[in-house]
Request: fold
Amino acid sequence: MKISQISKATGVSARSIRYYEKKNLLSAKRLENDYREFDEADIKRINTIQIYLKLGMSTKEILEILKCHDDYDAYTDNDGFCVEMLEAYEEKRAEIANQIQSLSAVQKRLDQRIEQMKIRQAIMAKTGGSMEQRGAST
Reply:
């Protein structure tokens, strides 16, 4: 099948498919007229790439995981064991845990600022001045 057909079959744009090829995640066969030719195995591989992208993995990380498989038939949602895959999953999980921790800290600071502003707003409402008037006079 041609790139437009595999794009329809996978729901992945032709541009993305070309990008996967550029990043060595996918290797299309070439016809005499230099058109790319894809098959069912390529559909599985593209779907696998999509799964890993949705997990937030980079193309470099995905390439390492894909190297664990001997052939395209091995690509499923249920991964077999591979040291590189396990390491990649553990690294990604640690990265996400750090992001959650950072975002939680930011959320806490925002909650504190919101609470402070609500208190100031309530005080301003009781004293009859607006926050804008107070801000302009300071």
